[in-house]
Amino acid sequence: MTTHPSNQIPFLPVELDPLNNDAEAIGSDFQRYLSYHLGRFQGCPSVYLYNALAYTIRDRLMVDWRNTWAEHLKPGTRRAYYMSLEFLIGRSLSNNLLNMELNANVKTALYNYCTSLEEVASEEPDAGLGNGGLGRLAACFMDSCASLGLPVVGYGIRYEYGMFRQRIENGYQTEEPDHWLRDGNPWEIERSEYSQRIKFGGRSESYRDAEGNTRTRWVDTEDVLAIPFDMPIAGYRNKTVNTLRLWKASATDEFNLQEFNEGDYTEAVQAKNNAEHISMVLYPNDSSENGKELRLRQQYFLASASLQDAIRIWERDHIEHDYSEFAAEHVFQMNDTHPTIAVAELMRLLIDEKHLNWEQAWEITSQCMAYTNHTLLPEALERWPVHLFEKLLPRLLEIIYEINARFLRIVSMRWPGDTDRQRRMSIIEEGAVRQVRMAWLAIVGSFSINGVAALHSELLVKDLFHDFYELWPEKFNNKTNGVTPRRWLANANQGLATLINQTIGQTWVAQLEQLEQLKPFAEPQHSAFHQAWREVKLANKQRLAQLVKAECGVDFDPHSLFDIQVKRIHEYKRQLLNILHVIHLYARIKQGRVDNWANRCVLIGGKAAPGYFMAKSIIKLINNVADLVNNDPEVGQRLKVAFIPNYRVSSMELIAPAADLSEQISTAGKEASGTGNMKFMMNGALTIGTYDGANIEILEAVGAENFFLFGLREQEVKDLRSHYRPWEIVDQDADLKSVMQLLSCGHFNSVEPGIFDPIIHSLLSSNDPWMTLADFRSYIDAQEQVAIAWQDQERWTRMSILNTASSGFFSTDRTMLEYNRDIWKLKCGEEN
Ligand SMILES: *Cc1c(COP(=O)(O)O)cnc(C)c1O
């Protein structure tokens, strides 16, 4: 069935000796990299120590990396490709050390350099190639797939500039470019030999081939090269190293040359720049589309490069190129609609380049594409104008039209005469500007469509995708998100990890359900364990307090309740509700109502999309409230408020372990899953949250008595919409009235009058989609319950332990096993 031509054997049978991992060998390699490779010596800036150490560690991944590839490329091995415009990776060094079990030896090796591993590791810039939850999910999936030995390759874009750096000036967000590659990236390996050519523009034409068949080709295109850069993804202590392949855009040589010969040198260089713009910058919009042409270019660039690469890899081992076997060996998981042009692109490659007929190509495509939906928010549903497709991807538009025509025939056969349904289900939205609905294309082209938490998946089939569910109920499924326990517990919270290891052993790191064994230790007789649990939390809070002092100049007392909301700033996430509570606490202090008081440090962090005016105003409001509260002697230690700038993966690694209270307060029905909620729970924080996304599953896992639930449910939000009158709620609630009065009288913006009017106006609008004031009373009451619980530290500790102990379900190991069981059907490492 499969043969290797002698010149294409993928791996030469050369044995590679594993490198020595003892402290002495690591120390001497480190020294060699520092001095002989980087040309730096003891006493140099720490960033060079980081680079030398990263190279030293990368060397030690090479043998397993090569062997893992060889395993995955064995003929007949089914592989999954995770396609995502975002991978929010963060730092790699300390995570790799944990997974490779090299921490102790590296610490010893660094001993002579008068520096700590923490100091060296903190020199690594975050790989911030994502906006928030969706991108971080992709990174957690990569870790879990490697740790489970699943043959999964990640495909993404190697943005030159990742998520912008956020600074706060006079309370306002400012954005700075994040040139994360400035000092080089020691983790990546450029593989120009696997570059792919990507077409744009031009036109499509018919021609007759040598056998007389009518075919279509895409001609007069402006081509761009896609160059792959590979990053190793080390599994947890299992000798698996998977690959994250990120594409960089580069100009081809020839069209430069043509213009060069015409004497237009600068034009030629400009063309090169245009090509390279494609992978220049990550679009900083979370949960909303922006419709820019360059963004569509990025999407097609990723889809085409990745599909061509997968085909190249497969053809190398399938000499007969018998495409009837292709679908059995491939699944492409599309992370949201961003890469879903892949449906049409795979059709184009199979038909135009591999000369399959439509039916054969469709059979393959619709058997290996799978789509994950991440949001119900209408502003996030991608639609591309048809005219943009005509200009940029004319051949793809033809294919989409044909897919749609055949699909609408199915619809009209199932529902004859139901033209309204045909209009609703058409991949092309008619109107003043005709648009391609990317989610519809994904659904029609995929065999699996999943949401990311139980409620979200239910709402998908009930509302947004209901027509499609009626047609193809078997395609729809749920895969509740998770987070990797290696990064988010074992590595981020080494104090707690050590305590857990001493108590129940360390199998939990690869089997998080084992944390259940902690449940008996929540009982009061284990007072020494409770004491140790509190001491770990206190140490983590001291560490965070130092960061808050350094970054915000605010004094957090580690003995206060650390009440934390960090996530992208978005109206649906309702940072406003949080700040209304802060203002309420402040008003209470001023009114002398300090019964049932718990001293609190409220920390809020997150980035606003640069063009999202309301989100930016919310940041300003938080900062202004913080200024007033923190400098009021009457308030003192009762309340501190800080906005932590530049929230990112590496800051979450310090924040989650130090949280007492996790704020998950989105309007019900709006947060698809949330994953920040899971990181906090794993680290022993209690959640105050709405009945939304994965909060519901967290509540079920830990029990209602260990969760502070409040607010309207999704159906109640819907039912209230038609008769929502927030000003009446204000009238009937004296506390809310005080808060709104402080806001509207300019108490927090005396030197900048009027700047919060849009916020006040939106809160009081009957059209407020987020219904913030509807949940105010319920939230305030739940926060009062938090304060009461906090006063009983023994009770709080018990609840904290139970949260960690119940968090096993929220490991991405579980999520990936479910994807594999229901969608991918790959063989795990041991089965191969
Ligand atoms: C986990 C994480 C998120 C997602 O947080 P949510 O609360 O689920 O929105 C966003 N950004 C970073 C840096 C994260 O680590």
From TrEMBL:
Domain of life: Bacteria
GO cellular component annotations of the record: cytoplasm
Thylakoid found in the keyword field: no
Gene Ontology BP term (one): glycogen catabolic process
Keywords from the UniProt entry: Carbohydrate metabolism, Glycosyltransferase, Pyridoxal phosphate, Transferase
Enzyme Commission number(s) of this protein: 2.4.1.1
UniProt keyword annotation of Iron-sulfur present: no
Catalytic reactions of this protein: [(1->4)-alpha-D-glucosyl](n) + phosphate = [(1->4)-alpha-D-glucosyl](n-1) + alpha-D-glucose 1-phosphate
Cited InterPro entries: Glycg_phsphrylas, Glyco_trans_35, Pyridoxal_P_attach_site
Gene3D superfamilies from the UniProt entry: Glycogen Phosphorylase B
Pfam families given in the database record: Phosphorylase
PROSITE patterns: PHOSPHORYLASE
N6-(pyridoxal phosphate)lysine: residues bearing it: 679
Cofactors required: pyridoxal 5'-phosphate
Single Gene Ontology MF annotation: pyridoxal phosphate binding
Annotated family: Belongs to the glycogen phosphorylase family.
Function: Allosteric enzyme that catalyzes the rate-limiting step in glycogen catabolism, the phosphorolytic cleavage of glycogen to produce glucose-1-phosphate, and plays a central role in maintaining cellular and organismal glucose homeostasis. Phosphorylase is an important allosteric enzyme in carbohydrate metabolism. Enzymes from different sources differ in their regulatory mechanisms and in their natural substrates. However, all known phosphorylases share catalytic and structural properties.
PANTHER family named among the record's database cross-references: GLYCOGEN PHOSPHORYLASE (PTHR11468), GLYCOGEN PHOSPHORYLASE, LIVER FORM (PTHR11468:SF3)
Protein name as it appears in the record: Alpha-1,4 glucan phosphorylase
Species in which this protein is naturally found: Thiothrix eikelboomii
Phylogenetic placement of the source organism: Bacteria, Pseudomonadati, Pseudomonadota, Gammaproteobacteria, Thiotrichales
